[in-house]
């Protein structure tokens, strides 16, 4: 099976040894996506806006790998405040409502930057 590393273009990927996503055969693994930017989190302190931006980035990585939202079989959601569960889950439902991937949503002590509220991973199988 051929392996394709998908890059966001960030110089940090080579420095820290990771890819935005990896596609091997029909399998696509999208690493932890956030709403982070050099100017701060897209959406500021609005967890719904951050979740929407994060899922837009997940979808972009999937498309680059030749997959789509419909191919997603599993998502993992990390939030810094479990009280955001309903808001984040509602946005997840808007995007994945018909697909219904296996899912986990857990609270973590912190994400990579202090203004990030949510991080999402996705696994897909093409075809």
TrEMBL record:
Q: Which CDD domains match?
A: YjgF_YER057c_UK114_like_6 (cd06154)
State the superkingdom: Bacteria
Q: Name one Pfam family in it.
A: Ribonuc_L-PSP
Which named protein is this?
Answer: RidA family protein
């Amino acid at each position: 099976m051929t392996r394709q590393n998908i890059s966001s273009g960030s110089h940090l990927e080579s420095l820290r040894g990771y890819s935005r996503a990896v596609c091997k055969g029909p399998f696509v693994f999208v690493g932890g996506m956030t709403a982070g930017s050099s100017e701060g989190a897209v959406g500021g302190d609005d967890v719904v806006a951050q979740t929407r931006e994060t899922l837009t980035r997940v979808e972009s990585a999937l498309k680059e790998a030749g997959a789509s939202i419909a191919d997603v079989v599993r998502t993992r959601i990390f939030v810094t405040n479990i009280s955001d569960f309903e808001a984040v889950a509602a946005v997840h439902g808007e995007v994945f409502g018909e697909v219904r991937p296996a899912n986990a949503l857990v609270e973590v002590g912190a994400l990579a930057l202090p203004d990030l509220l949510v991080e999402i991973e996705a696994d897909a199988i093409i075809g």
